[in-house]
Amino acid sequence: MEILITILSGVLVTAATYLILSKDLLRVILGSAILSHAVHLLLMVMGGLKKGTVPLLGEKPNTYTDAIPQALILTAIVISFAVTAVFLVMAYRMYQETGVSRHALLRGNKNE
Amino acid sequence: MNNVIVFPMVLPLLTGIILVFFRKHIQLQRWMSIGVMAFVAGISLYILNLIQTKGILRLDFGGWEPPFGILFVADSFSALLVLTASIVTAICLLYAFFSIDRAREEMFFYPFVLLMVAGVNGSFLTGDIFNLFVCFEVMLLASYILISLGGTKIQLKESVIYVAVNVLSSWFFLVAVAYLYGTVGTLNMAHLSQRIAESGQTPILTVISILFLIVFGLKAGLLLYFWLPGSYSAPPTAVAALFGALLTKVGIYSMFRMFSLIFYHEPQVTHTLIGIMAGLTLIGGSLGAVAYRDIRLIVSYNVIIGAGFILVGLAVSTPAAIEGSIFYLVHDMISKALLFLLAGTMIALTGHAKMERMSGLIRNYPVLGWLFFIVMLSLAGIPPLSGFLGKVLVSQGAIESGSYILLAISLISSLFVLYSLLRIFKQCFWGETTISEDEEVPLGKGMLIPAVLLAAASIGLGLGSELLAGYVRDAAVTLTNPNVYIEGVLVQDE
Predict the structure, then answer these.
(1) Which of B96, B138, B117 is nearest to B44 (CA)?
(2) Please, are residues B333 and B84 in contact by the beta-carbon 8 Å criterion?
(3) B127-148: string of b/e by CB count within 10 Å (b at 16+)?
(4) What pLDDT is recorded for position A61?
(5) At CA B62, angle to CA B61 and CA B67, rounded to 5?
(6) Interchain CB contact of B168 with A (< 8 Å)
(7) Nearest chain A Cα to B136, which residue?
(8) Which parts of the sequence belong to the NADH:quinone oxidoreductase/Mrp antiporter transmembrane domain (chain B) (predicted)?
C-alpha cells in the first residue's frame, strides 16, 4: 500500500512540476496546490499505513494508527490553504494592475 | 521560571493582534510597536545573561516532557540573534515612522511587521523541527504581505515570484520533515540528534540532510539566490531593510542548527557541499555586486555575499570559524539594515535609483555621506569596525583546517564588497554637486537618527567586541559540542 501511495504522490509531483514551469500564473498556482497535496500524502505514508483504528481513545482496539502525521498534515493543510489564498489574490491584483496573467510577459524594465 | 523565553515570540504576536483593532490610530500603533520591540530587546538581554549563569534554558509547553511535547530552547546563539533582531527591528520601525506613507500605515503595516518578527524570534527559539516550519510560515506569510503592501506594479511582479519560490521551499521543507520522521521517528531536535548519533548517519539521512540544505539554501540565499535581488529591491526601504537584516539570517541560523546539532556525522559530504555552495555564492554575489548600476541591486547582492561568507565558517566548522561566523552574523544583521536604510534614503532624496543620476551628495548631505563611508568600511572588514573580528576568526579557522581555496575566495570577496560600495560612494557622494541649494530635499532628522543609531551599534560592536566575546564563545561551545545542547534539553531537571 505504501508503494502505491508513494507512486501516486510521485505522479502528483510530476504534474505539479510541469504546471509550475508553464507560462500562465494560474497554472503555477494550481501546480503549487497539487504540490501540497503530494506532500500531505507523503507525510501520511511516512507515518506508516499499517492497519489500525482511527486514533480515538473510545474505540478501544489493540492498535491505533500513528496520530502525529495526521496532526502535521492538518497544520500543513491550513498553512497551504492560507498561502494559496494570498497567492490567488496577488495574481488577481497583478492581472488588474498590468492586464497580463502571464508573468513571463513582465520581464524587463518596462514595468519598473 | 523559564517562562521568560516565550516572551520574544508572544509579545510581538499579541501586540500585533491588538493593533489590528486600532487601524486608524496611527500614533498608538507606532509607539506600541516600537515600545514592544524595545521591551523584547531588554528581555532577550536578560535571557542572554540568565543563560550564562544557568546554562541552556528550556520551556516545555503544557508540561509535556521533551521528546513528546513542543518546546522552546534558548542557548546563547539563539538569544544573541533574538537580541540583535529585536534591536534592528526597533530601529527599522523608527525609520518607518518617517518614511512609510499614511496609506500603508493604515493598511496594518505595524501589525504585519510585529507578526513577522514573532515568526523570526520563534524560529530562533524553537527546539522542534515541525515547529520551526510553522514559525517559518508565520514569518513568510507576514513577509508576503509586507512585500506587496502598497500594490505598485513592480511590487506585485516581484511578490509573485517571491511567493512562488517560498511555496516551493516550504514544500521541500515538508518533504524533508516527512522523510526524517519516516526514518528516525521523532521531531524534537535534541532527540533527533541523539537517535542519529546512536544509529550512525546512514546514507538516507545524508540525503535528507542535503534536502534540508536545499530548503535553507533557498531561504538564506545560499547559491539558490536567484529570487533575492529582485524581491529585496521592490518593497519600501524600511521593509527591505527588515528583510535584508532578518529573513535570510533565519535560514542561516537554521542551517547552523541542522548541520552542527543533527547532521554532523558525515562532514566530508555535507560540509564539503556547504563549502562549495558558499564559495559559488561568494563568486556570484561578487559578480552581481559589481555588475549593476542600480543601488538597490548592489545592496541586495551584498546580502548574498554576506550569507556566503557566514556559511564559509559553517563549512570549515572549527571552533574559531564558528565563533567568527557568529560575530559576523550579528554584525551583518546590523550593518545590512544600515546599508538598506542609507541606500533607501539616497533614493528618496534624489528620486533615482541609478548611480549615474546622482552626484556630489556629500555637499548637500554630509552626515549621510560619512555614515555610508562607515558602513562601507565596516562591511569590508576594516579593523576598528564590527566586520573585522568575524572575518579574522573565520579566516583563522579556514587556515587551521587547510581550506585555502575558500579562504582566498572569502577574502577576495571582501575586496569586491569594498569595490562595489566604494563605487557608489565615489559616484554619488563625490563629484560635482548637481542639486542646487534651493532644490535640495530636506533630510529629516527622522530618517537620519535610525541610521546614526545603527552606525553607533556597528562601531560599538567593533570596539566593544570584548563585551560580546563571552556570549559568542559560549554559543560556539554549544554549537561545536552537540552534547551540551542535548543534555540541556533531554535531561530532566525538575
Answers:
(1) B117
(2) yes
(3) bbbbbbbbbbbbbbbbbbbbbb
(4) 80
(5) 65
(6) yes
(7) A79
(8) 128-416
**Poorest-confidence range of A80-84, B67-71, B250-254, B402-406?**
B67-71
Residue written as grid cell 543601488: B295
What does the pLDDT look like over A47-65, one tens digit per residue? 888 778 888 888 778 888 8
Integer CA distances (angstroms), B229 to A103, B119, B132, B297, in order: 17, 22, 25, 6
Residues ≥6 apart with Cβ < 8 Å to B481: none
Q: How confident is the model at residue B1 (pLDDT cuts 50, 70, 90)?
A: low
Best residue of A5, A37, A90, A92 to probe chain B, by most B CBs closer than 10 Å: A90
Q: What is the DSSP string of A37-82?
A: HHHHHHHHHHT-----B-S-GGG--S-B--SHHHHHHHHHHHHHHH
| Residues of B with Cβ-Cβ distance to A97 under 8 angstroms | 151, 153, 156
CB contact under 8 A, B141 and A32: no
* Interface touch B157/A106, C-beta < 8 Å: yes
Alpha-carbon distance of B340 to B296, in angstroms, equals: 8
Average pLDDT, chain B: 92
Interface with chain A: mutation pick from B108, B135, B174, highest number of A CBs within 10 Å: B174
Q: Render pLDDT for B361-377 as a digit per residue (tens, 0 to 9).
A: 898 899 999 999 999 99
Q: The dihedral of CA B181, B182, B183, B186: what is its sign?
A: positive
Rama region for B88: left / alpha / beta (φ>0; ψ in -120 to 50; rest): alpha
The CA distance from B207 to B124, in Å, is: 25
Q: Is the pLDDT of residue B136 over 70?
A: yes
Q: How far is A89 from chain B (nearest CA, A)?
A: 10
